[in-house]
Amino acid sequence: MLVRNAKNLFRPVRSTKRPDHAWPLLSMAALLALGLAATAQASTPDEARWQHEAQAVTITRDDWGIAHVHGKTDADAVFGMAYAQAEDDFNRVETNYLNAMGRLAEAEGESAIWQDLRMKLFIDPATLKTLYAKSPTWLQALMNSWADGLNYYLAMHPDVHPRVIRHFEPWMALSFSEGSIGGDIERVSLNQLEAFYGHDPVTALARVEPPSSWAEPTGSNGIAIAPRLTANGHALLLINPHTSFFFRSELQMTSDAGLDVYGAVTWGQFFIYQGFNHHIGWMHTSTGLDAVDEFAETIVHKDGKLFYRYGKERRPVTTRTISVPYRAADGSMAERSFTVYATHHGPIVRAKDGKWIAIALMNKPMEALEQSWLRTRASDYASYMKVAELKANSSNNTIFADDKGEIAYLHPQFIPKRDDRFDYAKPVDGSDPATDWKDLLPLDAAPHLLNPPNGWIFNTNDWPYSAAGPYSPKRADYPRYMDRAGENPRGIHATRVLSGQQGFTLSSLITAAFDSYLPAFARQIPILVADYDALPANDPLRPRLAGQIALLRNWDYRWGIASMPTSLAVFWGDILWDKVDKADTAEGLSIYDYMAEKAGPQARLGALVEASDRLEKDFGSWGVPWGEINRYQRINGAIVQPFDDARPSIPVPFTSSRWGSLASFGAHRWPGTRRYYGTSGNSFVAVVEFGDKVRARAITAGGESGHPDSPHFNDEAERYTTGNLRTVYFWPEQLKGHIERVYHPGS
Question: Model's pTM, two decimal places?
Answer without folding.
Answer: 0.93
